[in-house]
Structure formats: structure tokens, C-alpha cells
Design goal:
Strand order of the largest sheet: 1-2-3-7-4
Largest sheet: 5 strands, mixed
Strand content: 15-25%
Number of strands: 7
Helix content: 40-55%
Shape: elongated
Order of helices and strands: EEHEEEEEHHHHHH
């Protein structure tokens, strides 16, 4: 949870799997923000600060192709009438093609998708923060855990290979590794690097990139 200088409260999270209960999960997070921000004695309702739940999604949650979905309470009878309670749920869709977002956010989308970005101030700060984090002990433990998960996925592919045949089993191993690493929060660029390390002797870079796009 983050609170800015104006007291507005945010819960920002990366959701790597498109689960059916995501909307209800967002509602729970929003209610938690509201609960933590309940009024104290002698405070007025106008002192309640805005609360935002923001999910960053490497998939389209509603299938409409929007780069950003912003949800507020509106009247069923007239959707243009909003309930101005200061709460909002926002889905940021890195796969989106419709609508406009600021350059910094677009760069973040591109970074998550493993695409080239601009040299803007925001994304440069993000990259610098990421590079600094990669030097920490916490990151080293994360990498070790990721490698263990990747090896488990590879072993699962080998087991499937015994049943399906060598080539089919290796493809299964690649797909398992992609799914596991995505669930672990890895972006496409890091996943592709892992694929090349584990399967570079079996598949070409182009084949691995295709597997990544299809999964």
C-alpha cells in the first residue's frame, strides 16, 4: 500500500494470471484500503481520502482492447452519473491497443512486454531502480528460487516427454517453464532469457520467441 502527500491511498499489484475472481479480488483490496482509512473521532466525511486499486495486467481482462480500464460507481439508470466517493479500480492492460496513456505508462507496458522503450525520465528511473534491486540479497534469493522453479518445470517437461515422445515433451517443458515464470512475476524479456539458457541447444531463438508469443 502507498500513501501520497495528499493522503490518497493506493494498492498497486501485478496480476500475472487471468483468474475469474479478479474483479472480486480488486474489490477486497479496495475495501481494505477504505477500512484502513476509516475516520477517527471528530473527523468529517470530507476528510476521507481517495482510494485506488491498480492492477498491472499482461493480458486483456475484458477483451475490449483498451490500454486502461477505469472503474467507478455509476447509476445504472444513467452511467454518466457517478457516485463521487473517491474510490476507483484501474486495470492497466499491457496488451491494449485502444485509447491513450501517458508516455511513461506506455514505456512501462513496453518494458513488461520486452519491447524497446524511450529514454524518458520515468522509465529511466524504473530501469535504474530495477538494476539497483538486482544487486540486493533479496534479488539473489529470488533468482535462486526462480532457477529452482525453472528446473522443476523442465523436469516436468522431461517426464511428459517419456509419455508423449521427446520433441513433444520438450515443447511441453518450454510451455510449462513459460507458465510457471509468468506466475512468478517474470516479464517476457527475462522469460526469453531463461528459455535460451535451458533450451537454446534444442530450439532456435525464433522458435523460442514463437513459443513465448503463443503461450
Amino acid at each position: 500500500m502507498i500513501t501520497d502527500s495528499r493522503g490518497r491511498r493506493y494498492n498497486v499489484e501485478m496480476q500475472v494470471a487471468n483468474k475469474r475472481d479478479m474483479d472480486k479480488r480488486a474489490r477486497q483490496y479496495l475495501f481494505k484500503l477504505m477500512e484502513d482509512g476509516f475516520l477517527r473521532r471528530r473527523q468529517e466525511y470530507e476528510e476521507l481520502h481517495a482510494a485506488y486499486v491498480i492492477f498491472i495486467l499482461p493480458f486483456d481482462p475484458k477483451g475490449k482492447g483498451l490500454k486502461r480500464y477505469s472503474f467507478v460507481y455509476t447509476a445504472k439508470e444513467d452511467p454518466s452519473v457517478e457516485l463521487n466517493d473517491g474510490s476507483e479500480i484501474i486495470y492497466l492492460n499491457t496488451k491494449g491497443t485502444k485509447g491513450k496513456v501517458k508516455q511513461g505508462l506506455d514505456d512501462l507496458y513496453r518494458l513488461i512486454e520486452g519491447k524497446p522503450t524511450s529514454n524518458g525520465k520515468f522509465i529511466s528511473r524504473v530501469k535504474e531502480t530495477m538494476n539497483n534491486y538486482r544487486r540486493t540479497e533479496e534479488w539473489r534469493k529470488h533468482v535462486m528460487n526462480t532457477e529452482e522453479v525453472a528446473e522443476a518445470a523442465k523436469q516436468l517437461g522431461m517426464e511428459e516427454g517419456k509419455k508423449e515422445g521427446k520433441k513433444e515433451g520438450l515443447i511441453t517443458g518450454v510451455q510449462n517453464l513459460i507458465y510457471v515464470l509468468r506466475d512468478y512475476g517474470e516479464d517476457n524479456q527475462n522469460i526469453l532469457q531463461q528459455l535460451k539458457q535451458k533450451y537454446g541447444n534444442t530450439f532456435s531463438d525464433k522458435q523460442l520467441e514463437d513459443f513465448l508469443k503463443q503461450s
